Automatic annotation (TrEMBL):
Superkingdom of the source species: Bacteria
Pfam families linked to this entry: DUF6597, HTH_18
InterPro entries: DUF6597 (IPR046532), HTH_AraC (IPR018060)
Residue span(s) of domain HTH araC/xylS-type: 178-252
Species in which this protein is naturally found: Brevundimonas staleyi
Alphabetical list of PROSITE patterns matching this protein: HTH_ARAC_FAMILY_2
Name the UniProt record assigns to this protein: DUF6597 domain-containing transcriptional factor
Gene3D superfamilies in UniProt: Homeodomain-like
Length: 273
């Protein structure tokens, strides 16, 4: 039995690429009992546990087991999870505006929520120990739904999301135009344009920090590269989106939390056949 930790990413087939950013798999047969902090990354996700689901800490401090299949909407605050057994999962990371038709409801209804998807993923067979087959099982289900439901995108929202990902400045808009865009964002993305920009800037810190370390100088350099003006500004977002300082996170985080942070914006391998 393979006891090594494993993380892998697979791009979706071209037919799903407008909606799905990447499919990723993770396994850790012998996880530690460390509490892991997961930060917002601007992308809703559909997750199927092949192994044991994680426990998640609720706002009252009580730990509850997550459902074995869940949809995680946009996050505006961190979550804390911990493993309870051998971990193996496959997840679909949607584009920020890509999950509206999958969910079948405004994305604002899922913001900061983990919704059970056990019934909707019933019958999806994700073979243990086979990351590529796990990824294909998920994309096969989504492709069937895309064809059946006729998924679409809002071109205005997509153009704004792409501008944010390119770190282009927001154009000047009248108050009425801004309100209209915000309504469309709440429906298609689940958060306001301003919030999504903040999340994307924060996530770019980890792209610039090639290997998160305990050194504050390294984090400061990464923050400046991500677009922060100074260390206090970045420190406020670490508290906001992770609930700790950068050096505290680097010392504490292992396994899934670190894998996600270091891989989210990395280039993906070739398309699944």
């Amino acid at each position: 039995m393979n006891t090594e930790e494993r993380y892998a990413e697979f791009p979706p087939p071209p037919s799903l690429a407008p909606w799905v950013k990447v499919v990723w798999t993770y396994a850790c047969p012998e996880p530690s009992d460390t509490v892991q902090r997961i930060a917002p990354d601007g992308c809703p996700e559909l997750i199927l546990d092949v192994g044991s689901p994680y426990e998640e800490e609720g706002p009252n401090g009580v730990w509850r087991l997550q459902p074995p299949a869940l949809f995680a909407g946009q996050m505006t605050r961190p979550i804390a999870i911990r493993p309870v057994g051998p971990v193996e999962l496959v997840a679909v990371r949607f584009h920020p505006d890509g999950a509206r038709d999958w969910l079948g409801a405004s994305l604002s209804t899922a913001t900061d929520q983990r919704l059970t998807m056990v019934e909707r993923l019933r019958g999806v067979v994700a073979p243990v120990g086979d990351p590529e087959a796990q990824a294909r099982a998920m994309t096969d289900r989504l492709e069937a739904l895309r064809v059946e439901q006729g998924w679409s995108l809002d071109p205005t929202v997509r153009a704004e999301v792409e501008a944010m990902m390119a770190d282009d400045p927001a154009p000047d808009r009248s108050p009425s135009e801004q309100r209209a865009l915000q309504r469309r964002f709440l429906d298609r993305v689940g958060v306001s344009p301003r919030m999504l920009r903040s999340v994307m800037r924060f996530r770019r810190v980890f792209d610039h920090a090639l290997e998160p370390s305990d050194e504050s100088s390294g984090w400061l350099e990464a923050g400046l590269g991500a677009g922060y003006f100074d260390q206090p500004q970045m420190a406020r977002d670490f508290r906001r989106f992770l609930g700790c300082t950068a050096t505290e996170w680097a010392r504490e985080q292992v396994e899934l939390a670190r894998a996600i942070a270091s891989q989210t914006y990395k280039p993906a391998p070739p398309h699944l056949a």
